[in-house]
Amino acid sequence: MSVASGNKVLPTKIGLIQTKRSLRTSRTVYKILEDKREVLLKRLDEMINEAQKSRDDMWDPLSEAYRQLYDSYLRLGPATLESIATSTPPTVDVSVNVRMIVSVSVPTMQITQKNVGLTYGFADTNESLDKATRMMRNVLPGILKAAEIENAIFRLATELEKTQRLLNALEYIIIPGYQDTIKFISATLEEREREEFVRLKQVKRILERKKELMEDVAPQTQ
User: Is the pLDDT of residue 50 over 80?
Assistant: First the structure.
């Protein structure tokens, strides 16, 4: 009795047929997973480039927004800015959907609230704060897009790691296990055939000797 992939297989012709079928299935699955790995690697490479572009697109607007905010901080003071901040909505309405990338669920995000004007009065503010506020709002969709892409990269990388583990299991454990089982069953069946052949030859010799004895005895009894 041999073991392949944790299953005990009897060394019979039926067991041999079943193991060969399992080996063919494993090789087919391996090919499918190889193709999936290639697609995942390609999509990951594309999304890494997208993530880099998204970060680059955000960098200048964010830098300018923070520069304007810092300028207003110096001009207005922290107390005034904190007072103005209390009138700013603390959250942003975002719709979350799901798209599939190589059988992987990836969330997509989009701001759903309408454009909101400035939520504070102009009496105690300055132009730098207005610019910072507008630039921050304009860059929010880009931030969501970058977050979406980086989340997708993480999920695809996780799927790639899982796919590679399955490929390794098939290549180094499951497929070799089936191959060893096929060799074991084939060798066992061949040994049985040889033993049966030898046994039949012995039976044939015994029958021939009996026949010769019968032929020798027959003339003497006449």
Answer: yes
Q: Is residue 96 part of a domain?
A: yes
How many domains is the chain built from?
Answer: 1
Q: How many of the other CB atoms lie within 10 Å of CB of 51?
A: 18
Length of the chain, please?
222
Q: How far apart are CA 115 and CA 138, in angstroms?
A: 10
Identify the CA nearest to 47 among candidates 104, 112, 94: 104
Residues whose CB falls within 8 Å of the CB of residue 98, separated by 6 or more in sequence, listed in order: 105, 106, 107, 108
What is the rounded CA–CA span in Å between residue 93 and residue 80?
27
| Rounded Cα–Cα distance for residues 45 and 29 (Å) | 24
pTM: 0.72
Tokens describing residue 150: 């980086």
